[in-house]
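Hey, sorry to bother you again with one of my protein questions. A protein chain has come my way and I'm curious about its shape. I'm sending you its amino acid sequence along with the backbone structure tokens. I owe you a coffee for this, so here goes:
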Amino acid sequence: MRAGGASCLSRGAWGIRAAAADMTTPGIPCDNAVPGAPAGSSGAQTRARGPSIPRRGSPTDWERGSVQTADIIAIYGAGLSSVLAFAQAATAWRGRARLDVSASFAYVGAGDFGTPVAAMAGRDVQEMRVYVEFIVRNVGGRPCQVSAVMIEAVGHEGGSRTIFQISPAGTLPVVLDPGTSVEVKIEKEHLDLAENLAFLGVVDGPGRRHSMPPDQARTLVREAWSLPTRVAVFQRRDDPTDRVVAFQVAEQAKFTQRPIDARTRKHINFVVSRPKSVMNTLKDHDQPRANAPSDASSSPEVSG
């Protein structure tokens, strides 16, 4: 009986200690307790492990899995949105209207178009014609209308901005499909009239400008200034005191002058500038003269 009693007492004490542990540590299960069994149950009856009881306020495994899945879905959605936005921006960039503009001098041996120049052909001197040939390519992803070749310049004297828009008949305006191009011929005297070149390129249907690379434009204009020119100084018949520089235009062109203040002029980054005005350049014979009419009744028509 002592042994048995001792055994019962020991098991009873163990049950009391387990119950005390369970009471002093809320939420921590007793590993040896069987649900529904007395605290003093012994031996094999107390070895079965019951289901874990979570602490109060702690998320269950299912809840923890839901949170992780929601985070993954949110991250995936944000990444997918970014990729789609980037793809749409790239498509819009490739599909925008883009024109590549280049130009060079063309020399021909016959015809009436262009400026007469003397060129060496072996040992003989041959008279040729020179003009500027623009090549405009549509390198964008949509059709684009080319309206005119545009030259914008600011004079040395006076606060005016001069804009030439040249649209040769039968050539411009034209709609270029992606991957196609057009050749446009203009007289070099349009470049000779520029004193401080601000823009050289083309303008499209909506009025957007597409410029030549500045280095190419600078080289082209400087070469034009070194060649003979048909630009001359004229005296107006209706006003002998008014002297102008002009030339006989062969292609359709629009000439516009707009006022410009000193502050705006100061912030213009000119592509290239003459050392002196066109009128003084011609008076000082700093540029060779080509065949030009000896008289003119008026200057080119001014609009704007």
User: Anything to note?
Assistant: Residues 73 and 141 are 36 Å apart (CA to CA).
